[in-house]
Sequence to fold (395 residues):
Amino acid sequence: MVVSVVALGGDGTGPEVLEHSLKVLEVVSQWTGVEFQVDRVECGGQYYLEHGRDWPEGSEQKCAEADVILLGAVGWPAPDGSGPVTMSDGKMAGWSPVIGNRIRLDLYSNIRPVKLYEGVKQRIHGKPQSVWQPGMVDMVILRENTEDLYSGIGGTLRPGGKDKVAVDTRVITWEASEKVIRKAFEVCRARPKGAPKDGKKRLTAVVKDNVMQGCKLFAKVFREVGKEYPEIEQETAIVDAFTQWLIGQPEHYDVVVTTNMFGDIVTDLASVLQGGMGMAVGCNTGDHHAMFEPIHGSAPKYTGKDKVNPLAMILSVKEALTWLATRPKFAAQQQAFNQAASALETAVEQVLKEGRVLTYDLIGEEKASTGTQVTAAVIEHLRERLKHPAGMATS
Fold:
């Protein structure tokens, strides 16, 4: 059995963390007997500066035909220092592999697990580690992934020939809202433990429906779909209030669903609860395609220094394996993929718990290991975990 993987390295440290994750995938391949056929595709701002487009011609088709997509990170500083590289149409160089893939492949659900592992300190300044034990931060945030302010509708008005007014049009539709909300209810239903605070299966819709028409519609869809899930506790929260509750009482939350822009912001905020962006995973999923990535960005200043945390990218592989296990095409490999995903998460947990081989963001500059060393430690634990498998699907 062959699994086709499109690997989009991107800019800066993106290709570095991607290569770390592919080393992990090699171990999984050896254990499962499944061949992961990797097609590396260059993309991003650096590629645009050299080629005049942000990825090679034909890349869209490659992604559409792949069984799964792995993405490092995109974004590169413009030579004139004016900000990130932008293309002639005004879009960020790297739009095609990121937002373009989300829209073209209908990756309508951006799923971001927020979990504090043992041995990791939350990143709220001045707050004692003892305030939240690992089990008190364990939620999943879903954001709609194809529309809202990222729909690309808008532009700059030029009264008198000068840029004086900029307009971004927010698009919220019933169809897209219903898909991600229904997905959120299904995720909530499937989670075994519920909210850390009280064990309740709880879905929170984050909106600004006291002001914004799009949020009024999103909240309406939430209430309508919610009628089909009476066993799940349902609540709405105004986004600005939610940000303080998220930081002050994360143990209340089980699953959260929101619109695209709000989700982009609150998930970055939520990352401080799990040790920072180096631990944060983004799962872009649809009914037929999926793309997995860390959400820490390309970090250009660390390019080539082997400093950045590879664990978010490695955990992205864990999420990719879990998703592959749900695909009818890989029904025979379902057990093996799920076991490998579980073993990989356990390997990461062991490295974090030991606390000896970690990058600067988790352990400080003086004691920091390289990304290569962290990956090697994860692989060592992974091999040990897989040494005596309980069972393995045929390839």
Residues 391-395 have pLDDT under 50 and may be disordered. Residues 174 and 217 are 7 Å apart (CA to CA).
